[in-house]
Amino acid sequence: MIAAETLATAGWAVTVYEHMPSVGRKLLLAGRSGLNLTHHEPLATLLQHYGDAAVVRDAVVAFDPAALRAWADGLGESTFVGSSGRVFPHSMRATPLLRAWLARLAGLGVRIEVRHRWLGWADTGACRFAQADGTVVDRAADATVFALGGASWPRVGSDGGWVQPFREAGVVVHDLRPANCGVHIAWSTTFRDRFPGTPLKNIALTALGTTVRGDAVVTSTGLESGPVYPVSAAVRDEVARHGACTIAVDLQPDLTEAAISQRLSHRRPKESLTTWLRRTLALPTVAEGLVREATGNRPPIAPAALAHLLKAVPLTVHAVAPIDRAISSAGGIALAEIDERFMLRRLPGTFVAGEMLDWEAPTGGYLLQATFATGVAAAQGAIALQRGAAAGK
Ligand SMILES: Cc1cc2nc3c(=O)[nH]c(=O)nc-3n(C[C@H](O)[C@H](O)[C@H](O)COP(=O)(O)OP(=O)(O)OC[C@H]3O[C@@H](n4cnc5c(N)ncnc54)[C@H](O)[C@@H]3O)c2cc1C
Q1: Mean per-residue pLDDT over the chain, rounded
Q2: What is the distance between the alpha carbons of residues 235 and 306, in angstroms, rounded to a whole number?
Q3: Which CATH fold would you assign to the domain 2-179+324-390?
Q4: What are the domain boundaries of the chain?
Q5: pLDDT at 180 exceeding the cut of 70
């Protein structure tokens, strides 16, 4: 849609094809928990979150957080910098932003054709769509920008159905994999039945040398949210390599092991583990449950040993959550397949943007920032291509 806006602003006649009954459903979903549009930090720091995806980083430099915030402001949705640099619209939601955006697109003459599912290319090179009643139609265009998303939360639209036609056209597409996702842990029946939905507040999670603080949530299959998402990509890759990955939960990140041991040193006669941990460390029942999980229900009773365990409760991850529950997707169209204008080298006139491309980034506003930036870049690529053609280049 930002590509449509960019092209229409440049005077192009634009039609957006969407297979769902309405556009922007994932944006609305993202807005349900507070629309984290982008991130406020030095640009060099922000760019590090896109790893070696140079073309994505270049697009973010060209359409940076300030540009994205100015764009939102222009739609009447001014933004603010929240905790840890995350940027949100004051309304926190996506609904008013999307409403104003659709009005702007309509004003620019952008046509939106919903219930049109892109199936692939016709022999003529035109895009082939299935309409809701099953009718197949072909639509030709001077240029096409694809932004069909990854494969997370398919019920809001992006289901990865585009992968096969792109591969058949000879485009290298890496398998779509979950990113910013939960991790699966084989809980005991007791733990699984007792604690799903329970937050593990103010923990520090360490995986493969990275430690992240925050609040995680216990699910019936493992852990999700907060500190789990930032480590999930590394855990996912480790599980793919070795079949499992050990993570460690620090249940008392503000206390040293010695301080914990000191507090635990006076256990009252007949005091249960639950009461002992609550009285001395204010630890909730779920923390005790985690300690029992990690030790086969035989937690150490010596203060020093228990303190050591509380600083790093080891848990074995045997899988990451499936892609349909992930916040975003890794994998997608190999970056080597596109040029600096986001045009497919094999299909001149065809541009790609957003999560379809093989880059990944953590939560924190980095996903939408790159999605918008690559959408702008792809549209500008189409404009540059046409100008070049008009100039006979
Ligand atoms: C729960 C949740 C919360 C999130 N919160 C945030 C956040 O706060 N901040 C942030 O930066 N990111 C967030 N994200 C991630 C962010 O929403 C995505 O990275 C972003 O929407 C990707 O944009 P996109 O345009 O590439 O794909 P999408 O937004 O998925 O859009 C792709 C569109 O293409 C359509 N489509 C797919 N296939 C076809 C087809 N064959 N034919 C026609 N149409 C098709 C889809 O229906 C969809 O409308 C969140 C994601 C989730 C799931």
Answers
A1: 97
A2: 26
A3: FAD/NAD(P)-binding domain (3.50.50)
A4: 2-179+324-390, 183-320
A5: yes
